[in-house]
Amino acid sequence: MEEIDPQHEISLETRLNAIRTTRWQGRMETVLPGVIVDGAHNEDGVHEFVRTLRQVGKGRRIVMLFSAVVEKNYEEMVHTICQTGCIQEVIVTEIHGSRIVPAGELAEVFHRYTDVPVTPVCDIDDAFALALEKKGDGLLFCVGSLYLVGEVKRVIEEKKHD
């Protein structure tokens, strides 16, 4: 706001209201009850995701649906997430397109850092359905790629019209 309005022509009340009502799609966005998408696709995003996970994950069943693109440091992302000890089950999947990291490869990376069940499912629609089933009464976090966020939202939208 200092860059946009250095003369402070916009009131403090308006500024604060704007901050309170701003919604950032794909960043800890609840898309269904108990289903949160987070495009944590870089180091800062993963650290913020982990910080939130530690706050909300205590005493809850946490399932994660994860995918990443090939040029990201997904091994470090997985390592950071697994260090929390908050996740009880992981479903890994693949985004569409040329930047794909195979689900089997992602599963191998998770197996290096956690003993929780990790299931590779190549098709995002099938992976999301399985993750929802595994969530039960807990929480499902869909994390690791903005492309995954978009795909999960697409799956939800298509289910509304079935």
How would you describe what is shown here?
There is one protein chain. This protein has 162 residues and is of the alpha/beta class. The chain has helices spanning 12-21, 43-56, 74-82, 103-113, 124-135, 146-160; strands at 29-32, 35-38, 62-66, 89-92, 118-120, 139-143. A 6-stranded mixed β-sheet has the order 1-2-6-3-4-5, with helices on both faces. It is globular and about 55 Å long. The model has no long low-confidence stretch (mean pLDDT 89).
Summarize the structure.
Helix content is 44%, strand content 15%.
Features:
alpha/beta; 6 helices; globular; 162 residues; six-stranded mixed beta sheet
Q: Could you outline the blueprint of secondary structure elements for this entry?
A:
Layout: H1 12-21, E1 29-32, E2 35-38, H2 43-56, E3 62-66, H3 74-82, E4 89-92, H4 103-113, E5 118-120, H5 124-135, E6 139-143, H6 146-160
Parallel strand pairs: 2-6, 3-4, 3-6, 4-5
Antiparallel strand pairs: 1-2
Helix pairs in contact: 2-3, 3-4
Percent helix, as a range, is 40-55%
Structure classification: alpha/beta
Measured on Cα atoms, how large is the radius of gyration? 17 Å
Major β-sheet, in short? 6 strands, mixed
Give the beta-strand count.
6
How would you state the average pLDDT, rounded?
Answer: 89
The parts where pLDDT drops under 50 for at least 5 residues are none
Strand content: 15-25%
Q: What is the general shape? A: globular
Order of helices and strands: HEEHEHEHEHEH
The largest beta-sheet arranges its strands as 1-2-6-3-4-5
Q: Could you give the distance between the termini?
A: 44 Å
Number of helices: 6
